[in-house]
Amino acid sequence: MPRRSAPHEPAKRGYHHGNARNALLTAAAGLLEKLGAASLSLRQVAERAGLSRQAPYNHFKNKEALLAELAREGYERLAASLAASRDAQGRNSLERAAESYIRRAQEAPALFRLMFSRELVDLARFPAAAQAGAAAFEALKDIVATCAPADRVADLALAAWSLVHGYATLCIEVALEPADRRAERARLFARILRAAAATSDAHH
Amino acid sequence: MPRRSAPHEPAKRGYHHGNARNALLTAAAGLLEKLGAASLSLRQVAERAGLSRQAPYNHFKNKEALLAELAREGYERLAASLAASRDAQGRNSLERAAESYIRRAQEAPALFRLMFSRELVDLARFPAAAQAGAAAFEALKDIVATCAPADRVADLALAAWSLVHGYATLCIEVALEPADRRAERARLFARILRAAAATSDAHH
DNA sequence: GTTTGATATTGACGATGTCAATATTGATGT
DNA sequence: ACATCAATATTGACATCGTCAATATCAAAC
Questions:
Q1: Nearest by CB to A196, which of B36, B165, B195?
Q2: What residue ranges define each of the domains in chain B, with the CATH number in brackets?
Q3: Model confidence over B137-196: pLDDT tens digits?
Q4: Strand D nucleotides with an atom less than 7 Å from a protein beta carbon
Q5: Cβ(B164)–Cβ(B102) below 8 Å
Q6: C-alpha angle A172/A74/A162, rounded to 5°?
Q7: Position B91 pLDDT exceeds 50
Q8: pLDDT, tens only, A16-58
Q9: Angle between the A182-198 and B182-198 helix axes, to the nearest 10 degrees?
Q10: Inter-chain contact B120–A38, Cβ cutoff 8 Å?
Q11: Which one of A159, A164, A185 has the shortest CB-CB distance to B189?
């Protein structure tokens, strides 16, 4: 499902202006942050894209499917952010990854909510989106693997994801604290995870 | 806003069957887990409570206000759970609190989602609910205070809440892993937090 | 018993998601 | 050049929803 059509394919297919699908997704992404996923209506999306009422149904099965595609794109960008944090130089990839994750939540809260809530989109019904989400988690696991003993990576990656995701969620949902503490919190979480990795106690 | 009227007040006030407000809340709580907060309609709530279409508007300003009351009750029960974990005997109150928190999410995911999402209810507009939520966090902070140095309680309580909330959220939203690992994860998180509390490194 | 205020109900309206039916377009085969 | 066809687009229609107004009904106070 490429967002932009490949350069060698005929650029315009439909008769109106061709890339109606992209126009719809762009319009939807804009409305998403303005109204929230629940209040966003397909009719407004269509109008903003300069199309008719029913246009979304030419490209998506229903509202949930359109939202699922937005979520998928969000997961893809998140995974790219995390991979970039991992590949950059320096030993503090964990801090950088945590900060990216939190920043994404704070800069596009409605999209973040959409990605991580079954309320409006059930990811299980959209394998492409679910797979993109799994890929993002894999990127995070890679980072944790660089600073934890092998037999603890699974547990610590789970804890890392939970910790950062929980903080990001609480920030945007409960207004836990202002966004300018983001970097500081990313450092705190990285320190906690490294301390946990360094502790060697029995599993029972 | 007592859920059940005090025994000395006249039990029935309205002419239909008096405690219409309770009937509406009970009906709404039932439908909430069946349909989700977004799909739940006030008309269905009213019908299930044996009342007319417009009955909810006699007791709540609008749909959001009714949902906010459900969230408030949820926060109150959560705070009670955490306080009970703290007051029970034994030194592992942290594990017990984490497990309670996760259990609540898994047993009533729609309510949990409602409590922790601005999508449908903006807590800032419902001070009673917001205050109940703050009380729950205070209970958690009390527990962390029993196993962390005083100058780290704030940071570690934040981390504890984030860690447990993140895991609970990911479990119900992304089907991270089955519910039977709950106790095991509660122990893992408690161990991580204690390890972080035991580490004494500089803040910069 | 009449007044009164809270509570309950029905009517109405605009908005929404979505199904059906129809129309339009650009490409294709001749 | 033209008929064909599948993809794409549009309009019509319907049930459902949240919510405002207007109205009806009860319980208690004077």
A1: B195
A2: 1-60 (1.10.10), 71-198 (1.10.357.10)
A3: 999 999 999 999 999 999 999 999 999 999 999 999 999 999 999 999 999 999 999 999
A4: 7-13, 16-22, 25-28
A5: yes
A6: 50
A7: yes
A8: 556 889 999 999 999 999 999 999 999 999 999 999 999 999 9
A9: 100
A10: yes
A11: A159
